Amino acid sequence: MYKRYSKENKQRFQSNFWDIYWGPDEAKGDDKLNSYFIEIPEYNKIKTGEYRYIIGRKGTGKTAIIERLKSDIHGKYNFFYKYMSLKSFPIQSLRGMKDKSQGDKSQFVPIWTFLVLIELSKLIIQDQMAESSDDIIDLSQFIKSNFPSNLGFHETIKSLESSENKVSIFTKWLGLEDKTGNSKEILTQVHFQKANEILFELIKRINSKCTYYLFFDELDEGYSIGDKGLNLLLLALFRAIENIYLELKHQLKIRPVLALRSDIFENLEDNDLNKLDDFIINLRWTTESKSKYSLLDLINARINASLKVQDPDNAWECVSFNRDETLPYPVKSIWDFMYNRTFERPRDIVKFMKICGKFNYRGKLGFQAVKTAEIQYSEWFYKEFRDEIQSHLSIWQEATQSIIKLGKGVFTLDEIKFEMDKDSAIKTHLTSNNKSHVDILEVLFNFGLIGNLSDSNRWFFKYKDHNLPFNPDHKMLVHFGFTRKFRIRPY
Ligand SMILES: Nc1ncnc2c1ncn2[C@@H]1O[C@H](COP(=O)(O)OP(=O)(O)O)[C@@H](O)[C@H]1O
Ligand SMILES: [Mg+2]
Fold first, then answer.
1. Ligand 2 centroid from CA 142, angstroms
2. Angstrom distance (rounded) from CA 84 to CA 125
3. Chunked mean pLDDT (size 10), the chain, 491 residues
4. Which residue has a Cα nearest atom 26 of ligand 1?
5. What residue spans define the domains of the chain?
6. How many CB atoms lie within 10 A of CB 490?
7. Distance 38 CA to ligand 1 centre (A)
8. Which of 11, 41, 292, 433 is 20 to 30 A distant from 405 in Cα terms?
9. What angle, rounded to 10 degrees, do the helices at 295-306 and 346-358 form?
10. CA of 415 to the centre of ligand 1 (A)
11. Is the overall model pTM greater than 0.85, yes or no?
């Protein structure tokens, strides 16, 4: 009897790496995300409104958090949400709606405030528990007469454009009573900034036990660092969201959550942002299992969602020959090999696994399959890097080419300078922008293409230590994720 039981049990365990489902590259719309989502330590404090801004590099899981919140909320009668993507947002029209009497970012705070208040109002009028009913009817009437199609931000902007920034409101909201006593029906036109004041007052009168989430994502679409105006727009959005939250938090449970790429965030120079520091989450992952933000746990969760392995806490060990003897010296494990080819971001490690899964092997994952997959992974990794760096360094490609031409995994400042000087585009860039070689290398360092190698042969990368300054006097090394694509021997 005992024997039979253990035999059955054995058969139930699976270790075929190629049966694992790794999911899509983007968290947006991933309907399996719940089965392998790793809760970050701050998750519950986003739900209570303590954290409102999620900052992280590309692929660190900003959208994943929003997707998870959406699915937590979905179908619950006392939660409402609106997802606002700034993808293909009519930025030009928005710029036209600035308040010319103000300077800098303050010009755009009123229009953002209006856009967000409108979306919030749309949530409130769906809420059956909100009171008083008279106020809700008024609010609902206001939305219906101005923005009837419920299409979100875009519609609001469009209709403001055609009405020359005016909206219809009840005269009684201005404190003007109609002599016929029929003031309810009378509408008048006011500028949207006036409507902001009125909406704030009206919303403050509303009571509800429900929670309203406002998600802002994909703000980085079409971002270019040189566009100072765009930076102001983003700063104004932060300010508008914070204002609305502070103004209404005692009356209503509103939960704005804004996700933004860290390279863009760091470029937004403004004293105001420091004040937000307590409400910001910086997404940074590490390798160690059982620690917070563990990428190994994240991979284990994906394996466990697909397979029933013998030891779920060590799922990775169950599906790989982690200490494969064919690993090159001094790499200790397949995990280390793969992990060192990422920027410690979920998307990188998942993508590498997924590419391994495309090749025709069976059983546990061995180093041979990883080596085969590395070529394709390195190509992909390079493109991810390009997406981030291109708006920060116009000659990123030429600079990278210099490293490829130099053909070494480790080099000195003099060596790379010599190579860069052969490139006319780099030379022009240096003179016309009054920059030095070190400035260019520093950008490559900040985005993780290169790291520093200390005299004791320890390597340092910015993504591992965010406060690390670039030291041009130390040797530099190419990140292992690129060496295959660049056809250079890793250090
Ligand atoms: N907390 C998490 N748990 C599980 N998977 C995650 C988590 N965060 C990110 N991922 C995965 O990493 C990838 C990138 O996440 P995504 O949210 O799209 O990144 P971002 O929006 O920051 O660019 C997706 O495959 C996603 O499923
Ligand atoms: Mg995203």
1. 33
2. 18
3. 48 90 96 97 96 97 97 92 86 87 91 96 92 88 88 87 91 67 70 94 93 93 75 93 96 96 89 91 87 94 97 96 95 96 98 96 95 97 95 95 97 98 97 97 97 93 92 97 94 67
4. 27
5. 41-282, 291-386, 393-486
6. 18
7. 9
8. 433
9. 40
10. 38
11. yes
